[in-house]
Design goal:
two-stranded parallel ribbon, 21% strand
Length: 129
Amino acid sequence: MADVEPVFEAIAKAVLRFEHLVISCEFVARLQQLGQQLNAYAEGNGLPGRVITVPAPPANDTWARDHGPPITVDTADGPPALLDFRFNAWGGDKFPWEKDDASTGTWRTRAFSANTHCSQWILSWKAAL
């Protein structure tokens, strides 16, 4: 983690230049610290984005972009909504994925309970070789 955390921090700072960011970490104290640091960075640099922190659900992969829920924001400044798609790690036959697939349900109960749109569609694809 020591090698990759600065990369994630740089990504977070780049995102905050344009929009809000949800971050998640299994270590709650570190999550709170990151949220405070990144929000202070955004505010101190006049950036529009802010950080929402959510304790991490169990997952098979650290990169939630692949399995985490897309989050939308209503154009009328409504609350964020979580889109709960299924995930099967690009076809379900190469990597463990069960925790990743279930993680959106955990996100829903921890942070987005009133604003979730569920789908049985699979948010993944499997390339034909």
